[in-house]
Amino acid sequence: MIGAAIKLVAGATTGSMTMISSAVDSVGDLAVSLANLFVVRLSEREPDEDHNYGHAKIEGLGAMFEGGFIFAAGGFIIYEAIHKAIIGEVSHDSRLGIVVMLPILVMTVATVTYLRRVARATGSLVIKADAAHYATDVYVNLGVLVALALVWITGEPLCDTVISIVIAVYMLWSSGHIVREGFDVVMDRSLDKATVDRATRVLAECAAIESFHELKTRSGKVPHVDFHVVVRPEMTAREVHDLYLALRTQLRAIAGPTTKILMHADPAHR
After folding, report:
1. What is the mean pLDDT of residues 80-96?
2. Of 164, 186, 208, which residue sits at a domain end?
3. CA 143 to CA 147: how far, in whole Å?
4. Which structural domain, as residue segments, surrounds residue 223?
5. What does the DSSP assignment read for 147-206?
6. Full-model pTM
């Protein structure tokens, strides 16, 4: 919030559209991060009577919300940049803006590095989306610095307009990826093809089963692998259970340690 306030004041002082755009994006970052705090805490709740499979899917909705916000912010920046260019409003005193942006850029890079580390450790889609969101801020802040430097060196205010629009287009592009990833979680998109192919090979090469069918997978914070196996009709319940444990270990090594493995055993017809 302090960084956003500093950029907003500096942007108003210098008249830089790129800096004002960055300040607006930073204010949005605060709002989105607060919303994500609620989403992450809710997604960690244990299953209950109303949500037997847990609450992890809310992270997909959270990612879609964040992507939508980035898209809206990008659209606002394009509008404001074109508007200022049309009315002929120009920036001034670029050196002040450069001094302000350098430490903010360093803090943003540190934030992205930390969020990516947490996202890898927790598998949280929302934190991953947040890291992607703040990564756009790195490019936004770099763009602001470049724009301020070019205006200072060339004296051409159009540099500010062009670069702010380039930044906004990048924000629109990145928001599409975030929304799509959240949508995939909500719609139970399958695991990637390479993972499914490896899981298929594990089942096909298992000597304890005669065949398998109805292999289904689901991605997300808690991946799922669901399948039916055909086994010898004389297999005992313990043998089937041991088979399940062995397959679970192999499949989790492929799809991740938190993956839910669901196996249904069918007796072979003799």
Report:
1. 67
2. 186
3. 6
4. 193-267
5. HHHHHHHH--THHHHHHHHHHHHHHHHHHHHHHHHHHHHHTTPPPPHHHHHHHHHHHHT-
6. 0.66
